[in-house]
Amino acid sequence: MTRRRGPAALASAVGAGLLALALLAGCGTGPETIGPTGVDELVVPSASPDPADFVADVDNAWWPLVGGSTATYDDGTGRLLRRTVASAPERVGGVQAVAVRTEAVAATWGGDALPAPLTQWYAQDRRRNVWLVGGTRADGSRWEAGVDGAEAGLVVTGTPRTGDGYVRRAVPGLADVRVRVLEVGETTSLGGEDVEVARLEVTTEGATRTEAGAAAGGRPTGGRTRAAQVDEEVLARGIGLARFTGPQGDWALVAPDGRAPPDP
Questions:
Q1: What pLDDT is attached to residue 161?
Q2: pLDDT (tens digit, 9 = 90+) per residue, 168-187?
Q3: DSSP for 204-241, written as a single string
Q4: In this structure, which long-range contacts are made by residues 84-91, counting pairs with CB atoms below 8 Å and at least 24 apart in sequence?
Q5: CATH number belonging to the domain at 10-254, selected among 2.20.100, 2.40.360, 2.60.120, 1.10.10
Q6: Could you tell me if 129 and 106 are in contact, meaning their C-beta atoms sit under 8 angstroms apart?
């Protein structure tokens, strides 16, 4: 990851993680540049993350990834998504990264069409910023930072700050995903315990594409234009992704110990 002195010119606010499972779409336009925020001195997105800046584990309090762990999300109707963290890191985009696979629990979806399984690779730098450095598309093909124009995007900073904005996904053939931090520090109840949460606005840019362009995975030259999809993520300190919205509903974490998800 390249760093530079003083305020960086940063890209404005996203959605990968689980949101990308439902938000895989066509290509968006290039990132818009905004003024400095809480991600000062970071270049976002980054075409060539520096391996020396990264560590093997992802232990950011807002996005912890424990090897071998699983998390299940319910949409309130009984449909479930399951997120599984790989047991060991691997090298993706030139850095040590942790794979997270998200897939529908088929038996709970009845006759509904299942979203495609999604694997995404996350890497953490020495300041505990978490980056999205790779992922799979709906057709199962894989992208990674530094290959064919794909760049590493920022998932969450080590210390989120209200008003921060940045690009989470910048990949040719997929819509740009941007994040804006709406609020940090609110306390809510999680299974009878008070937890601190951060609320993020996650925007998948409107995309224009042709069927041929989509099939080739390249940048579109024309076709239908879609409006931007705006969703929200709620991150709980020490827990991670606790709630998120998407085109297919409002998903809440079903904690392994039976605790309820944070109040909306």
A1: 93
A2: 999 999 999 999 999 999 99
A3: EPP-EE-HHHHHHTS---SSEE-PPEEEEEEEETTTEE
A4: 89/56, 89/57, 90/121
A5: 2.40.360
A6: no
Burial class (CB in 10 A: 0-12, 13-18, 19+), 76: exposed
Q: How far apart, in whole angstroms, are the C-alpha atoms of residue 203 and residue 217?
A: 21
Phi-psi region of 76 (alpha: psi -120 to 50; beta: other; left: phi over 0): left
What single-letter amino acid sits at 39?
V
Task: Reduce the DSSP state of residue 188 to 3 states and report it.
Answer: strand
Of 134, 123, 100, 120, which is closest to residue 52 (Cα–Cα)?
123
Maximum alpha-carbon separation in the chain: 54
Q: Band of the pLDDT at 222, cuts 50, 70, 90?
A: very low
Q: How long a stretch of residues is the chain?
A: 264
Task: Reduce the DSSP state of residue 72 to 3 states and report it.
Answer: strand
Provide the total of helices (H) and of strands (E) in the chain, helices listed first.
2, 19
DSSP 22: H
DSSP secondary structure code for residue 170 in this structure = B
- 172's CB contacts (< 8 A; 6+ apart) are 27, 148, 149, 150, 217, 218, 219
Instruction: Find out whether 142 and 136 touch, Cβ atoms under 8 Å.
Output: yes
**pLDDT over threshold 50, residue 111:** yes
Domain ranges of the chain: 10-254
Please give the structure tokens belonging to residue 239: 């827990």
Both tokens of residue 257? 């110990």
